[in-house]
Design the sequence.
């Protein structure tokens, strides 16, 4: 890539924004910061960043609202590079995280992530890949729990294939993409394909359980 | 004509309250003095003079005592301080003998007043009855103040009738209530015998008793409903206060942690451990709807995470999928997990350990993984009991399996499995 990735940081804690900016350093270009939904939408329209680092809990309707209004903003010609969202949160509430993913985020990482891992995640998201932290992988497995059949390799959006499930399980166990690929004897590209497919299912699935599974997920 | 600038805030209404912190009788004079902005001595002198001149001071005082609320109802301070006073962690009022000086003076003055009145008007019995009644009601009202304060602090959800009268108890409360009633009854009796016939006393006492009974029957249901409403509101308030107390406690512990971090600023591992442990507490409070307890698999894994993080200063990332109640049969997997995580924290030499626990309909699986230096599972010395006994044999004994994969490049991963249904032979 010839130019550095242009990043917008959206978080309502100024201290945290400053911390992230310092950690990212010179490896990406932080074009702006925003502290609530309105500021974020305005900044997205003005700067057209490649990646928006988005807090899940945000004054004005949460990170999901930013994506809803950012997507409907006028004047985004299809030829131009699209803005992608990476959710970054301290909240472990599963329904909020899944809700943000379903609203359009390409990934979710927790705020305790190290600087180099965060830069790596931003790069992946900017290239259109999905970023699953172990925690998100756990949530996904939980969300799709009980719908797996061993031979189900159809296009049904409501279930994960056995391979996708294996990938998710390895990610949840703390494996890096490279290690997942080695473990399953597949290429990193295939791992990324599986991840994108899981992300798509997560975003498009109409399973009504998915939206309210969080409340009764402790019952098995 | 000038227009006043619009204010964003509603003008604060100054309310007169009784000063219940150090009352001599009911705190009316002190409260009134504070409200009017005059020295309390003037107010007290005013009441005394009015009491001497026809007794209106006494009636005025009693009326204000009834009407003015105690100031603790409106006493708002910082949340942490309020929480601390509710839990009795703040120094309370200190009473010294010297503080009772004004009360003694008041008694002496009152006695002089009564004797003067007697000298002027004669007819001593009615005056004495009046004095006894005033003293009796004063004591009972004073006790009502104390009980109100106790109720305000009390954290139990139900309204206790005994506590409603006696407050937090103590001999002073019982003496006040007992003496108050005795004085009031004595006053009634004294009033009854003013004509000199003892038999009248019974008639008057009985008719007074019947009057009280009739009032009780008339007002009883209304008071009962009022009490129920009060109890419901009180329960709500107590719950709110409990949440506030919890929040205050957490913020307090954050303060302590910040202080410790400042002291240990140069010691990176300690700072990390403190911050991590505080983060865990706050996160659990903010985002966990149901606090995990150690009766479920995930709850006990959280417990292990806490212990290991605090003891060894490593990050332990727990990702659970599903949960199940623990019983005798399933607890070995928790014990084995504890051993494996502890080993990883102690020997692997990495700052992060991952735990992944999955509950599927027919089995439990736990993976413990680190990216440390690894070891040779076959080459564990026989005298090292940890791996062999606590993990491998334990899982085998309970019908499960334990696998250890370890290389120098990828670190170590321990896989524990345990079927959820007991084997046929162990469950006849």
Sequence:
């Amino acid at each position: 890539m010839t130019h550095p990735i242009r990043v917008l940081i959206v978080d309502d804690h100024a201290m945290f924004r400053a911390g992230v900016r310092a950690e990212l350093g010179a490896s990406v270009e932080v074009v702006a910061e925003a502290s609530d939904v309105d500021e974020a939408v305005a900044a997205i329209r003005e700067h057209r960043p490649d990646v928006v680092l988005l807090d899940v809990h945000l004054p004005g309707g949460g990170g999901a609202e930013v994506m809803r209004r950012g997507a409907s903003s006028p004047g985004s010609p299809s030829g131009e590079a699209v803005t992608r969202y990476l959710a970054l949160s301290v909240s472990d509430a599963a329904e909020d995280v899944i809700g943000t993913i379903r609203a359009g985020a390409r990934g979710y990482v927790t705020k305790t992530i190290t600087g180099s891992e965060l830069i790596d995640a931003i790069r992946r998201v900017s290239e259109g890949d999905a970023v699953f932290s172990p925690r998100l992988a756990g949530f996904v497995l939980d969300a799709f729990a009980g719908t797996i059949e061993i031979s189900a390799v159809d296009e049904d959006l409501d279930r994960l294939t056995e391979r996708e499930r294996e990938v998710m399980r390895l990610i949840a166990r703390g494996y890096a993409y490279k290690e997942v690929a080695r473990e399953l004897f597949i290429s990193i590209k295939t791992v990324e394909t599986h991840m994108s497919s899981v992300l798509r299912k997560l975003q498009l699935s109409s399973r009504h359980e998915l939206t309210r599974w969080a409340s009764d997920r402790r019952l098995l | 004509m000038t227009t006043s600038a619009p204010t964003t805030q509603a003008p604060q209404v100054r309310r007169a309250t009784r000063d219940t912190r150090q009352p001599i009788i009911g705190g009316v004079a002190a409260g009134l003095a504070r409200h009017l902005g005059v020295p309390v001595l003037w107010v007290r002198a005013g009441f005394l003079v009015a009491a001497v001149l026809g007794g209106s001071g006494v009636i005025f005082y009693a009326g204000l005592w009834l009407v003015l609320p105690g100031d603790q109802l409106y006493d708002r301070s910082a949340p942490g301080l309020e929480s601390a006073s509710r839990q009795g962690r703040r120094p309370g009022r200190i009473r010294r003998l010297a503080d009772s000086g004004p009360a003694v003076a008041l008694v002496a003055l009152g006695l002089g007043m009564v004797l003067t009145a007697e000298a002027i008007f004669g007819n001593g019995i009615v005056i004495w009855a009046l004095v006894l009644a005033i003293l009796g009601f004063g004591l009972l009202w004073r006790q009502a103040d104390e009980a109100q304060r106790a109720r305000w602090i009390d954290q139990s959800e139900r309204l206790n009738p005994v506590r409603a009268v006696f407050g937090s108890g103590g001999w002073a409360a019982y003496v006040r209530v007992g003496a108050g009633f005795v004085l009031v009854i004595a006053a009634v009796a004294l009033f009854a015998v003013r004509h000199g016939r003892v038999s009248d006393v019974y008639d008057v006492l009985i008719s007074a008793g019947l009057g009280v009974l009739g009032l009780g029957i008339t007002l009883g249901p209304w008071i009962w409903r009022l009490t129920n409403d009060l109890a419901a509101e009180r329960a709500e308030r107590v719950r709110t206060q409990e949440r506030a107390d919890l929040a205050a406690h957490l913020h307090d512990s954050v303060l302590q942690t910040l202080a410790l971090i400042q002291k240990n600023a140069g010691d990176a591992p300690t700072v990390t451990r403190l911050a991590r442990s505080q983060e865990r507490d706050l996160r659990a409070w903010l985002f966990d709807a149901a606090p995990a307890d150690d009766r479920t698999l995930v709850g006990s894994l959280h417990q292990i995470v806490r212990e290991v993080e605090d003891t060894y200063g490593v990050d332990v990332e727990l990702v659970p999928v599903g949960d199940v109640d623990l019983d005798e049969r399933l607890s070995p997997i928790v014990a084995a997990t504890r051993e494996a995580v502890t080993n990883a924290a102690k020997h692997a030499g990495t700052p992060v350990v991952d735990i992944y626990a999955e509950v599927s309909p027919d089995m439990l699986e736990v993976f413990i993984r680190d990216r440390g230096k690894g070891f040779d599972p076959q080459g564990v010395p026989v005298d090292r009991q940890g791996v062999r006994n606590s993990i491998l044999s334990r899982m085998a004994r309970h019908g499960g399996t334990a696998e250890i994969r370890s290389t120098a490049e990828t670190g170590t991963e321990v896989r524990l499995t345990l079927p959820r249904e007991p084997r046929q032979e162990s469950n006849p």
